[in-house]
């Protein structure tokens, strides 16, 4: 396990690698406002033990990567999308398997359509189709309880009060979990690492929303044009992107495989699902 800071196009990004550099590379792409800590080191080690070179990284404004002033991000959504390619370039890797969750799944889809030569495969977790779909049937909206969270967010903590920040971040995860129970012990471990590693947590929780909202991309991307082998993993109880978002992805992408993750909400797969997820990704990224 090796952590490093890499300067790419003037921006400092933090990344960590696991396993044999000579093995096929898997690049893990997190969701909005999420540092690489959600890709638990033990999960990464399980993938590495299956003969993969695993890379996880902090998005801009998360973890130890470059931080912008709160409310004034110095980058665009296009930068977040391009950063995985910048990381591959910095590591001297021509191609990689990419695994994206939530916003990271949107990034993976865009890379597959705009730069398919850099991707060996893609795995999409807890995400939704981007661009134009062939099936015009509307996808279901978020669960009302999540809509209520967006409409009436919890008051921010005092950011210099570590205990209050920990509770705020743990509580923020509860509504996104599936019905199998909230793995509070695991979430608390992850959140402690996030709090201890982050340059500026307020920037993490503010700036991504701003750059995503500001994105103005008139290009029409069509998932039917994807040529990269795709695997879709989706929780059966995702309250943000209900299950039909995942099945729609698999239906739109030619040849995509689909695996339902029983009882999972909108989240990075929790420990109880690691064996299922690691096995699925290992099969999908096997030499063809």
TrEMBL record:
Indicate whether Hydrolase appears among the record's keywords. yes
Q: Which is a Pfam family this sequence falls into?
A: Abhydrolase_1
What protein name is recorded for this chain?
Alpha/beta hydrolase
> Would you indicate the residue range of the signal peptide?
none
What Gene Ontology molecular function terms does this protein carry?
Answer: triacylglycerol lipase activity
InterPro entries, A to Z: AB_hydrolase, AB_hydrolase_1, AB_hydrolase_fold
What is this organism's lineage?
A: Bacteria, Bacillati, Actinomycetota, Actinomycetes, Pseudonocardiales
Keywords recorded for this protein, A-Z: Hydrolase
Q: Name one GO biological process term.
A: glycerolipid catabolic process
Domain (AB hydrolase-1) ranges: 24-266
């Amino acid at each position: 396990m090796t952590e490093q800071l890499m300067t790419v196009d003037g921006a400092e990004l933090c990344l960590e690698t696991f396993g044999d550099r000579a093995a096929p590379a898997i690049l893990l792409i997190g969701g909005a406002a999420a540092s690489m800590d959600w890709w638990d080191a033990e999960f990464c080690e399980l993938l590495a033990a299956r003969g993969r070179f695993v890379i996880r990284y902090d998005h801009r404004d998360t973890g130890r990567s470059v931080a912008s002033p709160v409310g004034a991000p110095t980058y665009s959504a296009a930068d977040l999308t391009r950063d995985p390619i910048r990381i591959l370039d910095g590591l001297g890797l021509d191609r990689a398997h990419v695994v994206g969750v939530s916003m990271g799944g949107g990034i993976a889809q865009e890379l597959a359509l705009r730069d398919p030569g850099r991707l060996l495969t893609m795995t999409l977790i807890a995400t939704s189709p981007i661009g134009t779909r062939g099936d015009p049937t509307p996808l279901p909206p978020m669960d009302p309880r999540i809509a209520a969270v967006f409409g009436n967010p919890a008051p921010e903590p005092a950011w210099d009060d570590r205990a209050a920040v920990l509770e705020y971040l743990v509580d923020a995860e509860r509504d996104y979990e599936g019905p199998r129970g909230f793995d509070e012990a695991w979430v608390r471990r992850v959140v402690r690492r996030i709090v201890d590693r982050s340059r500026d947590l307020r920037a993490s929780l503010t700036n991504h929303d701003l750059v995503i909202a500001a994105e103005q991309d008139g290009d029409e991307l069509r998932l039917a044009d994807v040529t990269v082998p795709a695997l879709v993993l989706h929780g059966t109880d995702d309250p943000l992107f209900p299950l039909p978002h995942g099945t729609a992805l698999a239906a739109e992408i030619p040849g995509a495989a689909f695996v339902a993750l029983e009882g999972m909400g909108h989240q990075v797969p929790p420990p109880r699902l690691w064996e299922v997820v690691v096995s699925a990704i290992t099969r999908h990224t096997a030499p063809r």
